[in-house]
Amino acid sequence: MVKRFYTSVKTGQTEAGYFVALDDRRLKTPAKRDIDLPTQALATALAEEWDGQEEEILPPSMPVMRLVATAIDRVGDALDATVAGFVDYGLSDLLLYRAEAPPQLVKHQNENWSPVLAWAQETFDLTFNVTGGVLPVDQPADNAARLVKIAGRDVFRVSGLAHGAALLGSAILTLALEAAEISAERAHALSNLDALFQIDEWGADAEAMERLEQIALDIQALNRYFSALKP
Question: Which residues, including other chains, have CB under 8 Å from residue 78's CB and lie 6 or more apart?
Fold first, then answer.
């Protein structure tokens, strides 16, 4: 554990962007790179995390810092590969693979997932092949190129998109969350629809509930990050 080594936290701005300072010393990434942020809101969110640390610095309590550091230290050095990973989620998206039984789950998935796919189709001009079961199904050839364009080249946004796709198992749900088409709570419900259905049917153990609660916190943090990126 690292003891808190600073007293004050503040934000500032240079020509390169917004920054966070700990006792007048600019915050850097774990790789010792400068943190130049695109929005004041993101700098404020980052500063709040550092200011909220008590006697010891607890990295798990700083999800914005983790996403920012990932953007600068990792995504910036592997942008194409990170975008490709996001695209892979979109081509094998959670929402495209539906249960074949029981009928109640089939109906539940269709009623909840299909409207999000319809939104993505209208918003991004994507089309989807939905299948029953888990065997891979090819998606329209244009989807990969469209998803690359949708992801863009901004390292901070791509960091959030890649994290969201892995967290939710869905590039489409991640885009919907970023666009505020769905709330963090709705993203949690949709990405864990099967698990929550089983809990409703059979109940849940403490470990399963703890895991779902942690996922909910992670989604809320991602939602704050996306909101802070907006101008």
Answer: none
